[in-house]
Amino acid sequence: MSTKRIAVLVSGGGTNLQALIDAQQAGKLQGGEIVAVLSSKAGAYALERAAKAGIPGYVVARKDFDSNQAMTVALVEKLKALSIDLVVLAGFMHILTSEMVAAYPNAILNVHPALIPSFCGKGAYGLHVHEQALAYGVKVTGATVHFVNEEPDGGPIVLQKAVAVQEGDTPEILQRRVMEEAEWLILPQAVSLFCQDRLSVEGRIVHIKEV
Ligand code: GAR
After folding, report:
1. What would the pLDDT profile of 113-144 be if each residue is shown by its tens digit?
2. H-type helices in the chain, by residue range?
């Protein structure tokens, strides 16, 4: 089995990228290697994290394109030129269009900061997700890693982890707890499972092979 070439797409701070880099450095991304970080924003802190880890960073800036579709086409071209096998959306804040899914069927993973199908879809990104969870009054939230299909946050679910909401939580406090207790754990796990060819998709269901 050849090592899978992983590209991580980011838009901001990149703490999930950092979790992937840390996992790689600890030998926990079995079967995969992060070979590129692509940012939709020049100056994103995630690019500094990549540089520090010696991973090439590229900017495909949303503002340079008229539409998400035009940006998506440019991203696909770059990913193909880099011979990427797995695309990881780690805090990528734009909706990719069908060209990406067609180029990478069941080979794009996204981390979402809620238990899908709650608090997801259009408008549910970043801090807004936690604002919505707190406004609804849920007592448990969490994070989801899923395959990306044509529907925003609608693809087959790979891993989920629950996190308790606590009295006095603000969106910022809850966001941090969901990252620490869920996202930073399940994203590297899911990437590692993919890279070991342990995930298979049957309709909406993702089967995980035991070793
Ligand atoms: C993370 O909480 C991630 O799950 C979320 O944005 C944050 C990015 O943080 N992504 C989405 O909402 C995508 N729909 P990071 O840049 O520090 O990883």
Report:
1. 999 999 999 899 999 999 999 999 999 999 99
2. 15-25, 45-52, 68-81, 98-103, 127-136, 171-178, 184-195
Residue nearest to atom 1 of ligand 1 (CA): 91
pLDDT score, position 101? 98
Q: CA-to-CA distance for 54 and 50, rounded, in angstroms?
A: 6
CA 211–ligand 1 middle distance (angstroms): 30
Q: Give yes or no for residue 152 CB within 6 A of ligand 1.
A: no
| DSSP assignment of 73-129 | HHHHHHHHHTT-SEEEESS--S---HHHHHHSTT-EEEEESS-TTSS-STT--THHH
Q: d(Cα 43, Cα 61) in Å, to the nearest integer?
A: 10
Q: Please indicate whether residue 112, judged by its CB atom, sits closer than 6 Å to ligand 1.
A: yes
β-strand partners of 36: 7
Dist. CA 199–CA 158, nearest whole Å: 8
> How confident is residue 20, by pLDDT bands cut at 50, 70 and 90?
very high
Judge whether residue 44 has pLDDT over 90.
Answer: yes
- Pairing status of strand 140-147 against strand 57-59: unpaired
Look at residue 59 in the predicted model and tell me its pLDDT: 98
Atom of ligand 1 nearest to the CA of 93: 13
Q: Which domains does the chain have, with CATH numbers?
A: 4-208 (3.40.50.170)
Does the pTM surpass 0.90? The reply is yes
Out of 94, 112, 128, 130, pick the active-site residue.
112
